[in-house]
Amino acid sequence: MQKSYMRVALLLIVSTFSTLSMAQVQSYVRTIAPDGEWVMTPTGQATDPAGPPLPIVRAYDNWRSPSSGGNTLLIATVRADADEIADDVGIVNWQPQTFVADLGWTLYNFGTRTITRYRTTIRLYDAESNLLFTSSGVSSSSIPPGLGVKFATSGGAYLGANIPVSPGMFMSVQYSEVQGPSAADLGVLSGGPITLGSSSNFIYNFTTGQQIDLGPNNNLGFFIDAVVVPAPAGAPLLTVGVLAIARRRRGE
Q1: Is 66 left (phi over 0), alpha (psi -120 to 50) or beta?
Q2: DSSP secondary-structure letter at 64?
Q3: What sign has the CA pseudo-torsion 221, 14, 209, 218?
Q4: How far is it, in rounded angstroms, from Cα 15 to Cα 19?
Q5: Which of 145, 106, 120, 114 lies closest to 27, judged by CA?
Q6: Has residue 235 got a pLDDT over 60?
Q7: Among 35, 75, 139, 177, which residue is least crowded by beta carbons within 10 Å?
Q8: Residue 85 DSSP symbol
């Protein structure tokens, strides 16, 4: 982060950090049902929507990063306390006409009771913290105490929203309307090491205005999966080509 006003004592991280093992992490793909609720399907049982393949050029962050082997180790959590917790996402291979295709985010249950229903709100900001997009939905899924969960969309779920991608962005997640434990018992997974395309080790609490340092090898378990959509420049180029041919013929 480059905001000069984002400062907080490093002691804050002592009360927000908790060690995890990979055995405590599950993974789901998120889809939207006709009634508007978010449906979570175990990753091994999910299939991509039918349709043409997405453009080859993509931009990744965190656990979807190719340089991390496709799966960054999730080792800790940050207690969210119902706040909006954000990370600055560095985009790999950014090009003009790049748009958000899919998103990945995380949840951890600090409480002593199983989560049965909750609302997730995801927000995207540009590098200057200007809001670009908000997505919110209710999920009914069982998350026992002490379990971390990775969520992701698939198949270009957000391409229709035409959300432009810049080399530096913020992504945030916020949980509310929680049934089971309270929202104060929820957290966000963190991991490392930081790899090509991952954000810095600083995260930002948009609710309190605080910046948290996760250390030199950590960031939040988020990703933005983007694709390059070619600009509709075929017609003008074709016109130029026709004019060039006409000029050559006239010169013969």
Answers
A1: alpha
A2: G
A3: negative
A4: 12
A5: 106
A6: no
A7: 35
A8: E
Taking the C-alpha atoms of residue 109 and residue 246, their distance in angstroms, rounded to an integer, is 69
What are 42-84's pLDDT values in tens digits?
A: 777 766 655 555 665 676 766 765 554 555 667 778 888 899 9
Identity at 200, one-letter amino acid code: S
**What integer pLDDT is reported at residue 242 of this predicted model?**
41
pTM comes to 0.77
- At residue 108, what is the residue type? Y
**Which residue from 18, 130, 156 is spatially nearest to 74, judged by alpha carbons?**
18
CB atoms within 10 A of CB 99: 18
- Pull the structure tokens for residue 244: 């060039």
Q: Which residue's entry shows tokens 């971390």?
A: 148
Reported confidence tier of residue 119, pLDDT bands at 50, 70, 90:
very high
Rounded Cα gap, residues 109 and 80, in angstroms: 10
| Separation between Cα atoms, residue 168 and residue 92, nearest integer Å | 10
Predicted confidence at residue 56, as pLDDT, reads 58
Residue 124 structure tokens: 């995207």
What is the C-alpha to C-alpha distance for residues 18 and 72, in angstroms, rounded to an integer? 17
Q: In this predicted model, what pLDDT tens digit does every residue of 73-111 receive, in sequence order?
A: 677 788 888 999 998 887 777 788 889 988 989 999 988
